């Protein structure tokens, strides 16, 4: 997060690091005399975050988006301290109404959602870690149970044109039978979030289960056909499938196979 503050006729920029959604003090200071009447305005783009004039806050001039979120340190105004206490931080800028020069708008850094870690369907065991809407641009790292870094594909970033936050995705191929961690880190503001997943050994056997299931279905099918021929019944495809499903209780059988891989049918 960057906020500007003024010194007389000049303007400077100071960088403030904070997490979006928390409370922060945005510095803004100007050398003034105690008898001078201050006119201070804080803005975000075209929205007014706070206005102080004629010795008090101009509450009616504040945009609805900033109601009950902003305040000045009133006892320090006489010393030129126009710093703003801002809750649920976003991007704002400071402007002294007595000075015509207006600084560039600042930015807030520190947006971070909870990352997700899932197994990607397909050959082998591939993990995919995703982090949505992070600012600044984060780094994604895979770790094994011992905390060692795992080789992974290059991270894929997409920056939203409106919010300017980053969505990142990264994949890594691992061996089953272990715990794995995805770590998303913003070194600039020293913020880290992690998510863990357990990949059991039996996640490597679905192909064997499918082969066994196919053999069992084939044998049961042969048995049903043989039974029909001996009974003299006419054989139709519909009746054949119906009886196969009845004998296998196919839905329950599939659920059992899936649960062996620690997943659930939704």
UniProtKB/TrEMBL annotation:
Species per Swiss-Prot/TrEMBL record: Gasterosteus aculeatus aculeatus (three-spined stickleback)
Please classify the protein's predominant subcellular localization into one broad category: membrane
Q: Which GO terms describe its cellular component?
A: external side of plasma membrane
Which parts of the chain span the membrane according to its record? 209-228
Q: What is this protein called?
A: Butyrophilin subfamily 3 member A2-like Ig-C domain-containing protein
The GO biological-process annotations, alphabetized, read as: regulation of cytokine production; T cell receptor signaling pathway
Q: Where in the cell is it found?
A: Membrane
Boundaries of each Butyrophilin subfamily 3 member A2-like Ig-C domain copy?
Answer: 122-194
> Keywords on this record?
Immunoglobulin domain, Membrane, Transmembrane, Transmembrane helix
Q: Name one GO molecular function term.
A: signaling receptor binding
């Amino acid at each position: 997060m960057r906020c500007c503050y003024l010194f007389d006729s000049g303007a400077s920029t100071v960088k403030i690091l904070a997490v979006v959604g928390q409370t922060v003090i945005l510095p803004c200071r100007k050398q003034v005399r105690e008898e001078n009447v201050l006119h201070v305005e804080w803005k975000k783009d075209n929205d007014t975050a706070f206005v102080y004039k004629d010795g008090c806050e101009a509450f009616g001039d504040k945009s609805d988006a900033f109601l009950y979120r902003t305040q000045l340190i009133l006892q320090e105004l006489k010393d030129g301290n126009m710093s703003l206490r801002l809750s649920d931080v976003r991007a704002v800028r400071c402007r002294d109404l007595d000075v015509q020069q207006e600084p560039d708008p600042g930015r807030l850094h520190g947006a971070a959602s909870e990352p997700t870690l899932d197994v990607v369907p397909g050959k082998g065991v591939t993990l995919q870690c995703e982090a949505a809407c992070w600012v600044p641009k984060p780094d994604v790292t895979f770790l094994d149970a011992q905390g060692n870094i795992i080789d992974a594909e290059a991270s894929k970033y997409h920056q939203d044109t409106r919010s300017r936050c980053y969505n990142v995705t990264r994949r890594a191929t691992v061996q089953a039978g272990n715990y794995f961690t995805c770590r998303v880190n913003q070194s600039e503001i020293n913020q880290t979030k992690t998510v863990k997943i357990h990949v059991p050994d039996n996640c490597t056997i679905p192909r064997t289960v499918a082969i066994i299931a196919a053999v069992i279905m084939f044998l049961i099918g042969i048995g049903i056909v043989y039974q029909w021929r001996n009974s003299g019944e006419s054989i139709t495809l519909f009746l054949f499938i119906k009886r196969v499903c009845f004998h296998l209780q196919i839905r329950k059988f599939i659920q059992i196979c899936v649960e062996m891989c620690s997943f659930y049918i939704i």
